[in-house]
Design goal:
This is EutP/PduV family microcompartment system protein. With 144 residues, the chain is an alpha/beta fold. The protein has one domain: Rossmann fold, CATH 3.40.50.300.
Length: 144
């Protein structure tokens, strides 16, 4: 099983994805500090939105096998600087979240472009609401 560190802006769906991957009840919970689970490291959205926390992300990434950059496809802005994923000596994947809320394919493609610019090599489209893409991500992370 690969341990993944989830990074994304506030509201991108990191904690909800964590709950889904762990087959837990989906409920709102604001992540206040880095949370270590069996195979997931859930980071607060403030860590990507404030460069002062980048060092904490770099140090924490030593505990992960893969870095997951999350982007909410309904968000028209990107919070990741170009090449952000290059600061990690790990594989970097992109996770396009909330695909059930995108009313057209262009928004998903925009999210993919944001994630590629940030350094993601492979991108997963997911919706926790209708469970789309969750099994594919679990397979990649070797969660059985």
């Amino acid at each position: 099983m690969k341990k993944v560190m989830l990074i994304g802006s506030i509201g991108a769906g990191k904690t909800t994805l964590t709950q889904s991957l762990k087959n837990q009840l989906i409920e709102y919970k604001k992540t206040q500090a880095i949370e270590f689970n069996d195979f997931i490291i859930d980071t607060p959205g403030e860590y990507i939105e404030n460069r002062i926390y980048y060092n904490a992300l770099i140090v924490t990434s030593a505990e992960a096998d893969v870095i997951g950059l999350l982007h909410d496809c309904t968000n028209e802005n990107i919070n990741f600087p170009p090449g952000f994923g290059n600061m990690f000596n790990k594989p970097v994947i992109g996770i396009c979240t909330k695909t059930d809320l995108c009313d057209n394919e262009d928004k998903i493609l925009r999210s993919h472009e944001f994630l590629k610019i940030a350094g993601a090599d492979r991108i997963f489209n997911i919706s926790v609401v209708n469970n789309n893409g969750i099994e594919e991500l679990k397979k990649y992370l070797e969660i059985f």
